[in-house]
Write a structure and sequence with these properties.
39% of the residues lie in helices and 18% in strands. The chain is an alpha/beta fold. It folds into two domains: 11-89, no CATH class; 110-313, Vaccinia Virus protein VP39 (Rossmann fold), CATH 3.40.50. It has a seven-stranded mixed beta sheet, with helices on both faces. Helix 1 packs across helix 2. The N and C termini lie far apart (85 Å).
Length: 314
């Protein structure tokens, strides 16, 4: 007797897609996830090949045997119950890199690619023949920013730090997954403390995608985020800017003169953060980086090249 197999052209595919469409509650910060792209990623997983949405959209789907089709139904159930797609597949694409994902760290978002592209642009502008660029990524999470820079800048030495031991372990696994672990070092600890203890720095570039959601807003976030992703990764304290202020204060100690600090901010935070930076004499040439909607979502500030420049700004 011939076993019935399910293909992406079968009614079964459309049935599962309809289920996802009926119960869909996608997130604004995961625009790549739609009912169809989600189904393709879950289908690939059920077929035995875990892929991110981005990768699943670029490959033909294997036919599913009956047991695999039942497994897919279960995966669709879990997604409809709010479990993040990245946790189900164990994969997330960031700046073209297929990364491991899981509950240990915040799933990388497409919006952070704005900071990633800016970081690579800055790193390339700073790279000089004969000198090894040193980059530090704070609040590194799964290591996505550090990994993107290391991948694009083979000559750079990249460091990452995060308060979460679990996140650091995932970042290390990602470095191995990409085969570039020899060019990255990750440390667990509070912001710059592990870097200070290791005696590292100064750096040519410091990056950070810090928690910037106010504590009061955490309970208002989608259940998919607050119930499944680590609170440590998005709770920025009472006003959402506590870690940002600490970063701005402490980063100059670890920056070379004429080097840059670049970090992500939340919607509506640009005016206050830019204002504080521009009043700080340690920083110069403070710029906001806008997304496709014209919102400032990243900031770049250069450390003054000399004490004379600092004095001139006082």
């Amino acid at each position: 007797m011939t076993k019935t197999v399910m293909t992406e052209n079968s009614p079964f595919f459309q049935e599962q897609k309809a289920r996802l469409e009926q119960g869909w509650a996608g997130l604004r910060d995961k625009p790549e996830e739609t009912p169809e792209t989600t189904l393709r990623a879950l289908w690939a997983l059920a077929a035995g090949e875990p892929l991110s949405v981005d990768r699943a959209m670029g490959v033909p789907l294997e036919a599913l045997e009956p047991g695999q089709a039942e497994a897919l139904k279960g995966l669709v159930d879990r997604r409809l119950q709010g479990e993040p797609l990245g946790h189900l597949t164990g994969r997330q694409c960031f700046m073209g890199l297929e990364l491991l994902a899981g509950p240990q760290a915040l799933i990388p978002r497409k919006e952070t690619e704005l900071l990633g592209r800016e970081a690579i642009k800055l790193a390339r502008s700073m790279s000089q023949e004969g000198e090894r660029l040193q980059v530090l990524d704070l609040c590194t999470g799964s290591g996505n920013l550090a990994l993107a820079v290391a991948h694009e800048m083979p000559g750079a030495l990249v460091f990452g730090a995060d308060l979460s031991e679990d996140a650091i372990e995932l970042a290390r696994e990602n470095a191995k997954f990409l085969g570039i672990e020899e060019r990255l070092r990750f440390f667990a600890g509070d912001l710059l403390q592990p870097i200070r203890e290791a005696g590292l720095g100064p750096f040519d570039l410091i990056l950070c995608n810090p928690p910037y959601i106010s504590s009061a807003r955490v309970d208002e976030m989608a259940e998919e985020i607050r119930a499944f992703e680590p609170k440590l990764a998005f709770d920025g304290g009472r006003f959402g800017v506590g870690i940002l202020w600490k970063l701005i204060k402490e980063a100059p100690e670890f920056l070379k003169p004429g080097s840059a600090l670049a970090f992500e901010i939340g919607l509506g935070q640009a005016k206050g953060v830019l204002g504080r930076l521009r009043k700080n004499p340690v920083y110069t040439d403070v710029q906001g980086v806008e997304d496709a909607e014209g919102e400032t979502r990243a900031i770049v500030a250069w450390k003054a090249a000399s004490s004379l420049e600092v004095n001139q700004r006082n």
